[in-house]
Amino acid sequence: MSVKPEEFIDELKFCIKENDLVKAKALIQFFPGLDEKNQTKTLLEISRAPDEISYPCLVHIIKFEIKEPSIKKRLYSLLIDKFFNHGELIVKYLKDPKVDNKIILIRIAGELQISDAVPALNDILVNETNVPTLTAAIRALASIGSTSTIRKIADFLYFGHTGLKTEAVNALSKLGGPSAINLLGEAITGETEADLLIVDKLAEVQDHYALSKLIQLLNSHSTSIRNRAIDNLVNIGEKAVPMVIENLKCEDDDSTILTLNVLGSIGDKSAIQAISKLLFKHPENPNIRFAAYEALEKLPSDKAAISLAKGLQDLEKQVRMSAARAIDKNLSPILVAGIKNMVSSMDAESKEIVATIIDSGADRIFEQLIKEKNFANLSIIHLSKNAHPDTREHFTNLLAALDQDEVVEKIMASTDFKDTKKLLTVFAVDDSKMMLRIYKQKLHQMGLLPVLFEFPSKAIEAMENEKPDLLITDLNMPEINGLELTKKAREFYRPEELPIIMVTTQSDFIGQTTKNRLDSKKIKESGINIVINKPFRDEDLKDALDKLLKK
User: Which CATH superfamily is domain 420-549 in?
Assistant: First the structure.
């Protein structure tokens, strides 16, 4: 049934004058059929009406679909204006079962932060099934900021609808406080987009509770969650450092290692004292010592303690190399004198220290000591007999720049040049540059040709064009972890075509703890041939290589 706009407006005015709400609401059914100009006039007349006519008519209009954006905006503004000082009416209409399409009213309750509407909104969360209505209610409750609603909102973290999960995460992070943050943390159960969103929201909140929960996630069983937490803590930066430092006191070795990685990546010098203190206690786990020196390499300070030099005498080669890099970045006359004393003889320890300095690429130490007779002789032996060809080329170029041509001649005269084309190729993938240096040296000494990748994506690209004889990969890497890299490699090559060794500091991954054991069956299903744990001995790596390459 059509209606003439002029007659509609006149009839509406009459109903308002006569205070006839029934007829006014009956007329409003024709509102959607009016053009924009007359819809605007209608809203104007209703806004001028007495409250007992105006409010019911406006609420009645919202049940209809309004297509014109300008009218939607005008209606919403009018409702906001009307309800600004009458929150009790919003509550009344929210509770009224006869009112259809309450989404606009819910939005207004949130925008006006009407705390008396919280019980009605909670009832909507419990009884409503319409997703847009539930979405509006969650957002409104977050805007109002009532802590009494936290648990009801948290229920949607486990709701099947992805959009409602996202709304719940956003709402709880907005509400904040210990209860909301704890509930968000408890909801991280896997590696879904909702889980990763929670990690990002914790980083946005950045209060004490959120930072604490974010740091706890360094101990998550999920590689993706750990990496997301690390990225966020690094992005937060200096503000996070004091609490991250506190996490060095934790008893979980893996979490301590990741904490050291975070401190190194943030690069705030206030962490130096805490890391040095940790090293002074000489942690039993060499992976912690490795990570500590690696962090100190990224935190150069002219006040570095002489105790750094002790790292060159560590029993583990990986730790010694990490310490050498840290010393190189923190080099001082005192440190130079200390190292000079360490390599003053031709004994086995001196040989190992010189080899460590060279293999780690500690150029500054090398430059300071090359004029010392013992150091020069030990350098000649290592560079000609044991060093990787790239390392030998790097240091002979450095020696030439230092006018040490005589030393270069001795190195070249003692070198047995081999044909690398005949060597078996091993791809080594690790996000730690130090570990890549270690692989380069160890694999070279074992008669293999190492090809190194800091980024797994580059290794995948290379494997599409060339099959290596073996792949070594770390487990924990950003963006693409070792398991994901293995899965991708298996799209190209079967286990018998390309053996894969997984190397990890995560003791639980290989079943040494009770919290996330991966038995031999699961290892095989993942496409990994052998898992070895850092820090590995040369014998461990050689045995694995011999077995897989059938040397």
Answer: Response regulator (3.40.50.2300)
